[in-house]
Each structure stands twice: as structure tokens, then as C-alpha cells.
């Protein structure tokens, strides 16, 4: 509807004139706004976010909210990350679970003010793999917890930080 | 406002690699601006990956993810031309999305 108004304002001519071309950006932004409004309810539905887990100040508390208080150490949970990070603001961490039936992976950085940095749920077709960039405030253990068939498996690695990633 | 996103999806050896970049400040709420005032918490909370309209990865993330987040996901199989969509929503309710075809 907004699009039609844009055209009728410059008459019934179907061939875009230079005047109409100038109206195009306005029309486009109008369409974008309408699309954003239309998408909002859908996005809100999809947005499950573990408020307690992300608000937890210790890794143990965060794990409790994931139902993973006592994960089993496993070599099938693989962390690929640098041992020393020069810049704590951007630390690349690659995670993979070789535990059969893995449905989710959570990443925790023990010494961060809020240790839980992400939880990834994998559905049919997706491999239990993710590569991300995380902030490390200081040297810390990185803890990766994979969930498979209701059980939790963990791997840890220490990353040394020479410049912190918090406080800019 | 939501900045641009970039995405690339490539099929190799029976696995599709999806690499996506989002433009976002990912403010921790602990950083101070030059006037010494705390910059409020502002970060992406959810990232969703869809293949041909079907959700395959649901992510919940925190302010502990680096500014302008980059993620790589992997999908088993797939075919050239499959439609890959990634969308995000932040703690202010701002959203953005992008799509591409597997190459």
C-alpha cells in the first residue's frame, strides 16, 4: 500500500521518471519499516534466552541452569583455541563434539564476570560444531559442555590473555 | 540501527560451511565512554540458522561474544543452491537477517 502511494503522488505514468527515482529511497525505507514490524512477533517467538544462566556469576551456577552440574570429562569434546591470546577482546574458539547424539553445546569462560557466553542447539542436519570469537577479561579456563541423550560431557582448556577484553 | 551482515556458504566434502558476520557493538555494560559514563548493555541474544526454511541451529549468546560477531556453523550434506538464512535479535529487540545460496 505504501508503495502505491509513492507512485500515485507523481501521477499514473508507469515508466519511472527521474522524479519517481528520487522517491524510491523513501519507498524502500517504508517497506523496510513495514517488514520489520511484520517480522517482530515471529522473532519474539523464536527468542528463548536463558536469563538465569547468562546472569550467573560463576560457571558452576551457570551450569546448574543448564542441568549440567556434574558433566563427565570427555575427549570427544574438542576445543581448538590459542593457548595464548594477545588480544582478549577477540579470541577465536572452535568447538566440536564427537559424542554421538550431541544436541547442544555451551561455552563458558570461568573468569569472565558472566561466564556463560553461548549455548547452541543443533537440530537435524547441523553438525555439533561452532566457531566463535569471545571476549576474555583475563587468563581463564574455557569450559565447553556438550549435551547428548540427556547426559553432559565437558572439556576445558586454559587460554592465557596478555591484554584483557573487558573495559575496552 | 542494525548494520550490514555478510554471509558465505560453501559446500565441500559433503559438509556445508556457513560463515556469517554481524555488525553489532556487543556492549558489555561495563565499558566507560570518554566522559566516564557507563555504556549501557547492548548485545545480540539470539542467532538462528535456517536451511531451506527449516531451523537447524538455535543460538543463545551473551555480551561475552566479541564485537561484530563472526560465527561458523557446519551442516551435513546440503546441495548447491540451498537457501541459507541467518537472523538475530538483540536485547533492545532490534533484528536483522540475511540469506544466501550454498555455493
What does this structure look like?
The complex is a heterodimer of chains A (168) and B (103). By secondary structure, chain A is of the alpha+beta class. Chain A folds into 2 domains: 2-46, no CATH class; 51-161, SoxY domain (Immunoglobulin-like), CATH 2.60.40. Chain A has helices at 2-8, 18-46, 51-55, 59-65, and strands spanning 72-73, 77-80, 84-85, 91-97, 102-109, 116-122, 126-134, 140-148, 151-161. In chain A, the strands form 2 sheets. In chain A, strands 1, 3, 5, 6, 8 and 9 form a 6-stranded mixed beta sheet that branches. Chain A has a 3-stranded antiparallel beta sheet with strand order 2-4-7, with no helix packed on it. In chain A, strand 8 (140-148) and strand 9 form a beta hairpin. The longest helix of chain A has 29 residues, at 18-46. Helix content of chain B is 0%, strand content 52%. Chain B contains no helices and 7 strands. In chain B, 39% of the residues are buried. In chain B, strand 6 (83-90) and strand 7 form a beta hairpin. In chain B, the strands form 2 sheets. In chain B, strands 4-3-6-7 form a 4-stranded antiparallel beta sheet, with no helix packed on it. In chain B, strands 1-2-5 form a 3-stranded antiparallel beta sheet, with no helix packed on it. Chain A binds chain B through residues 36, 39-40, 43-44, 46-50, 54, 89-91, 94, 109, 112-127, 129-135, 165-168, and chain B through 15, 28, 30-32, 45-46, 48-49, 51, 54-67, 69-78, 87, 89, 93, 95, 97. Strand 6 (116-122) of chain A pairs antiparallel with strand 4 (54-61) of chain B, so a sheet runs across the interface.
Amino acid at each position: 500500500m505504501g508503495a502505491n502511494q509513492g507512485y500515485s503522488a507523481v501521477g499514473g505514468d508507469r515508466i519511472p521518471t527521474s522524479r519517481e527515482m528520487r522517491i524510491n529511497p523513501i519507498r524502500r525505507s517504508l517497506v523496510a519499516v513495514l517488514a520489520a514490524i511484520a517480522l517482530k512477533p515471529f522473532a519474539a517467538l523464536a527468542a528463548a534466552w536463558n536469563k538465569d544462566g547468562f546472569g550467573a556469576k560463576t560457571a558452576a551456577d551457570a551450569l546448574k541452569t543448564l542441568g549440567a552440574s556434574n558433566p563427565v570429562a570427555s575427549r570427544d569434546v574438542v576445543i581448538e583455541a590459542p593457548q595464548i591470546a594477545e588480544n582478549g577482546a577477540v579470541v577465536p574458539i572452535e568447538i566440536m563434539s564427537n559424542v554421538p547424539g550431541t544436541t547442544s553445546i555451551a561455552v563458558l569462560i570461568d573468569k569472565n564476570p558472566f561466564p556463560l557466553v553461548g549455548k547452541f542447539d543443533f537440530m537435524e542436519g547441523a553438525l555439533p560444531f561452532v566457531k566463535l570469537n569471545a571476549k576474555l577479561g583475563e587468563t581463564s579456563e574455557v569450559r565447553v559442555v556438550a549435551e547428548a541423550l540427556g547426559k553432559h560431557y565437558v572439556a576445558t582448556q586454559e587460554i592465557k590473555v596478555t591484554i584483557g577484553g573487558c573495559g575496552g | 540501527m542494525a548494520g550490514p551482515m555478510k554471509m558465505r556458504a560453501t559446500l565441500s566434502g559433503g559438509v556445508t560451511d556457513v560463515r556469517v558476520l554481524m555488525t553489532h557493538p556487543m556492549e558489555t555494560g561495563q565499558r566507560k565512554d570518554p566522559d566516564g559514563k557507563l555504556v549501557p548493555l547492548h548485545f545480540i541474544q539470539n542467532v538462528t540458522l535456517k536451511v531451506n526454511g527449516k531451523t537447524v541451529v538455535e543460538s543463545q549468546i551473551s555480551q561475552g561474544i566479541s564485537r561484530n560477531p563472526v560465527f561458523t556453523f557446519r551442516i551435513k550434506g546440503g546441495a548447491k543452491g540451498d537457501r541459507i538464512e541467518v537472523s538475530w535479535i538483540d536485547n533492545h529487540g532490534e533484528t536483522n537477517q540475511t540469506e544466501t545460496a550454498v555455493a
